Amino acid sequence: MSVPTWVQDAIFYQIFPDRFANGDPSIDPANVQPWGTAPTVRGFQGGDLPGVIQHFDYLLDLGINALYFNPIFQSPSTHRYNATDYLRIDPRLGTLADFHALLEVAHRNGVRVILDGVFNHCGRGFFAFNDLLENGADSPYVDWFYIKRFPLGAYSAGNAHNFKAWWGIKSLPKFNTANPEVRRYLLSVAKYWIEQDADGWRLDVPNEIDDDTFWAAFHQTVRAANPDAYILGEIWDVGARWLSENHFDGLMNYPVRTAVLNLLTGASTAVEFANRVEELLTIYPREYTYAQYNLLGSHDTERILTLCGGNLDKVKLAALFLFAYPGAPSIYYGDEIGLQGGKDPDCRRPFPWQPESWDSDLRAWFKTLIAVRKAQPALRRGELHHLASFANPNVYAFTRGEGADAILTVLNASDHRATLQLPVNLPGSAHDQMRSLLHPQQTCPIHAGEVHITLEAWQGDMLMG
Fold first, then answer.
1. What is the pLDDT at residue 160?
2. Beta bridge pairs of residue 453
3. What are phi and psi of 452, to 5 degrees?
4. What region, left, alpha or beta, does residue 158 occupy, with left being phi > 0 and alpha being psi -120 to 50 degrees?
5. CA distance linking residue 419 with residue 166, whole number of Å
6. 331 pLDDT exceeds 60?
7. Strands (DSSP E) found in 20-119
8. Are 174 and 166 spatial neighbours (Cβ–Cβ below 8 Å)?
């Protein structure tokens, strides 16, 4: 298989560039909003690449070893999914030199960096579409897009109707990737940034480029530039088609996120949850399953703490599961300190850099989960085994790994304390107790082949013999 092996060991941190940290106010737009302003669709707050560099110690202290950046190329918007120049870092984020400085710091510390690739659509200021606006049917770029009639009406009221755009939004004209010139251009962009030492691509709405030959060429181009580059697809549903040597290495695992949220909200029992997350492990070949990008939130979703109604125990339990489950766990910036937020744009609040505003206990929990996962190969590469059924429908227990390295994870998804006696066919059963990996001073006794565990409401643990 061609899946990069490093992804199994990755712990991702997603950064929305305008909202992480402002390191160079001199490149802020003139109308920049004060840091901490409630986010709006159009308001820039000055986050940039120098800000990430200046706060890299924070990321290293947390323990992450991979970064996923939302788009960083020149664009008129805060989200930058409407690029006007794919070959230039947005000046409000910095320069190519800043990008190289960021990569140098990251790579020197063993941190990979993947970029957001938006190849389905561009912005109205993109050179080819801008030429269409100026020259109409006489433009040499007519076949770069899906044009129905002229004039395009790209700035008139209402959704696009004279040209095809993403979800009909006029600021996002859709590329005609069947055009060989368009393909050459987009593939040159993919190659260029990998040659600049980026470690891979996260691909925005790749299912809307419904062309296997394009993605095969994309895969070949990226891998020729870097055989170890990670190619991640934003597919929201189960999609076996998209994982192959001619497509992607992993998908953003929204189905697992949905299962977790159903468990936390009571929409499913622990038994139903177990059945679903274990079913998801059978859909793809193992190499791709272990390269999934597992998430609790992103720039497109409400914040996990907000969805949990502010219940920190539920967030901790969700994170515990994510770090025990096969695939690469990810943290959406700020989730680790208890940042809240509703639907877009509220989920894109600026990171508060005053430690007194953080939930330090939650951050410590994420740090512990990261450290344990990095220390235990079974949590990164081990097989998942469902523990034998027992009489508590609110509890899910499973192991990762084999033999002396096997780790038992137990989740109590209820509002009540759970006292459990779980059968252990683990090396720990040869001893009289199992130790907690998350609470080093705690142990659980073993009697007659069963480990005795007490978990408070919405709590879990990882145990090792």
1. 83
2. 420
3. -100, 120
4. left
5. 52
6. yes
7. 66-69, 73-74, 85-89, 112-117
8. yes
Q: How confident is the model at residue 155 (pLDDT cuts 50, 70, 90)?
A: very high
- What whole-number distance in Å separates Cα of residue 31 and Cα of residue 78? 13
Dist. CA 168–CA 174, nearest whole Å: 9
144 Cβ neighbours under 8 A, 6+ residues apart? 128, 129, 132, 175, 176, 179, 181, 182
R_g over Cα of the chain: 23
Q: What percent of the chain has pLDDT over 70?
A: 98
Task: Show which residues are catalytic.
Answer: 204, 234
* Phi and psi based region of residue 301 (left: phi greater than 0; alpha: psi -120 to 50; beta: remaining): beta
> Within 10 Å of residue 341's Cβ, how many Cβ atoms?
24
Better pLDDT: 91 or 450: 91
In contact, 454 and 461? CB cutoff 8 Å? no
Q: Which residue has the tokens 């940042």?
A: 339
What is the rounded CA–CA span in Å between residue 432 and residue 420?
A: 16
Assign 457 to helix, strand or coil. Answer: coil
State how far the Cα of 235 lies from the Cα of 207, in Å rounded to an integer.
Answer: 7
Give whole-number Cα distances, 120 to 18, 152, 157, 182, in Å.
22, 19, 23, 11
* pLDDT at site 427: 53
- Over the stretch 32-48, which tens digit does the pLDDT of each residue have? 999 999 999 999 999 99
Instruction: Give residue 434's pLDDT.
Output: 93
- Verify cis geometry, omega within 30 degrees of 0, for the bond prior to 345: yes
Strands 200-203 and 230-233 turn out to be parallel
Q: Within a 10 A sphere around the Cβ of 457, how many other Cβ atoms?
A: 16
Convert the pLDDT of each residue in 349-375 to its tens digit: 999 999 999 999 999 999 999 999 999
pTM recorded for the entire structure: 0.97
pLDDT of amino acid 1? 57
Give 217-280 as a DSSP string.
HHHHHHHHH-TT-EEEE---S--GGGBSTTSBSEEB-HHHHHHHHHHHHTSS-HHHHHHHHHHH
* Cβ pair 295, 257 in contact under 8 A: yes
CA dihedral 142→146→148→153, nearest 10 degrees, is: -80
